[in-house]
Every structure is written in C-alpha cells, then in structure tokens.
Amino acid sequence: MNLPLLRYTFEANALRLLIIAAGLVLMGIVMPVMYSAFGVEMEEFIDSVPFFSQVINGFGGGNVLSLTGSMAFAFQHPFTLLLVGIMAIAFPALAIAGERDKGTLEVTLSRPISRRGLLLTLYLAGVVFVAVLIGVLATTTAITAMAVGFGDEVEVANLAQLWFVSTLLFVAFMAVTFAVSVESDRAAPAIGLPAIFILLNYLAFTIGGIWPDVGFLEDWSMFNLLKAQQVLDGGAALSDIVVIVAFIAVLALVALYRFPKRDLPAPA
C-alpha cells in the first residue's frame, strides 16, 4: 500500500463522493417518508388485489409497503445501484484501464510503487468509498425513520448489519471490475462488462421476485445474497456473508496475480 497515492486518490475523488452522497441522502429520505405518507393505506388496497400483492411483496426483495421493506428497498433501488455503481465500477475501471488507455499508468508505475502495491492501494480506497456511501444511506434512512415517528421500529444492530452486507455486495462488484480492468487496455470494456454483469444479476433478481414461474432466477442473482428486508427484520445470514467474501477474495487474488504479469504495450 502507498500512502501518498491513497491520499491523492481520496482528494481526487472527494467531489464525486460528495455528489453521490447527496443523491443517497435524497434516497434515504424518500423511502421512509413515502411509507409514512402512503404505506398503511396502500397496503390494505394492495393486499386486496393478488397480482399487485405478488408484485409489491416480491419487488426489491421484500414488501415495500412495510417500514423495513421500504428501507430495504432503498438499498436495492436502481437509483442507489446507479449512484454507488459509479464508485464500484467507474472508479476501478478508470483507475487501471482508464489510466492505461490514456498512457499514464506507466508514469505512475515508474515511481517507487509495485503493481501489487498500486492495486492494493486502489482497492482500499474503493472499499472506503463504498463503505462511506452505504453508511450515508443507512444513517439517512435511520434519521428519517425517527423523524417521521417510526424510529422505535428500526433495530440499529440490524441496520448496521445491512450496511455491512450491502458494502460487501458492492465491493464484490468492484472486485469484478478490478479483475476486468487489469486485463483491459481500454476503459470502455472495463466499465461495460462489469455493468452488464450487474445488470443481468439485477434483472434476474427483480424478475425472479415478481414472476413465480421463473423464481429460480432470483436464487442465482448476487443481489439475493443481500436479503435486505430479512437483514433488517432479523439480522444477516452468515452463509450469505461467507459467499460474498469468498467471491471477493477469489477475484482479488486473480487481479493481484494477473496485474504484475501483464505487458503494458504503448497505447494505439
């Protein structure tokens, strides 16, 4: 790990981090407020229509018309996925393949830092970025729930576990991007391939959750390892955490093995 590079990485991404955090604050406010305003009334109507009930109770991995369900959905909403994905995908892709694309990676590596040291430093920065962003979302949802009068229904310990598991999930997506990025000389495939991977996982999770005939798709999605509402209601499953950590470890080891062995040809 290289401390000057780590400090520079934090400084270079500070504005982007603040903008994304602002968006997550908005998401953290909207979901509990919507539940407070419409949740109870809408739940009675939705439960009376079987089709709507199946869609609402399955979409996003839980019942979005309950407090914990609406809070959980904030962690799996496409808007959240987009915002945190900017750090989980764009940051590692641009930090390796993007620098290679611009021809500046060799300049960085000409300094007293090894390739593994560079990769580990960027990994640490990425983990911190994701953890901070998910922490902003978790804190905002908790504060908003208290502000609208439902704070006593939120288990702080379970919310902390949701923060931890959500952070791990997005770090897993970041690990995919790092593994692709170290093999790529261009930023576009380093961003595009992980984005497609995440999109397919999200579609499988969403479609499987609302369409019983293809419910098996949900089981094969990485988003199913998050189980946000179940975590808020009763805590995280150790087996899910183990799977995510193993996934991260394998891809991190692959990236650490491959990056030092890659030739870095001059940009075309």
Sequence of secondary-structure elements: HHHHHHHHHHH
- Which spans have pLDDT < 50 for at least 5 consecutive residues? 49-56
Query: What is the overall silhouette?
Result: globular
Residues in helices, as a percent range: over 70%
Strand proportion, as a percent range, falls in under 5%
- DSSP helical segment count: 11
Mean pLDDT: 82
Structural class: mainly alpha
Number of strands: 0
Radius of gyration over all CA atoms, rounded: 20 Å
Largest sheet: none
Euclidean distance between termini CA atoms: 30 Å
Describe this structure in words.
With 268 residues, the chain is an all-alpha fold. It has helices at 3-47, 50-58, 67-76, 78-102, 105-109, 115-147, 156-181, 187-210, 216-219, 228-234, 238-258. α2 packs antiparallel against α8 (187-210) and α4 runs antiparallel to α6 (115-147). The longest helix is centred in the N-terminal third of the chain and has 45 residues, at 3-47. Mean pLDDT is 82; it is low at 49-56.
Essential attributes:
single chain, 268 residues, mainly alpha
Can you summarize this structure?
This protein is mainly α and 268 residues long. The protein has helices at 3-47, 50-58, 67-76, 78-102, 105-109, 115-147, 156-181, 187-210, 216-219, 228-234, 238-258.
Describe the SSE topology.
Elements: H1 3-47, H2 50-58, H3 67-76, H4 78-102, H5 105-109, H6 115-147, H7 156-181, H8 187-210, H9 216-219, H10 228-234, H11 238-258
Helix pairs in contact: 1-3, 1-4, 1-6, 2-8, 3-6, 3-10, 4-6, 4-7, 4-8, 6-7, 7-8, 7-10, 7-11
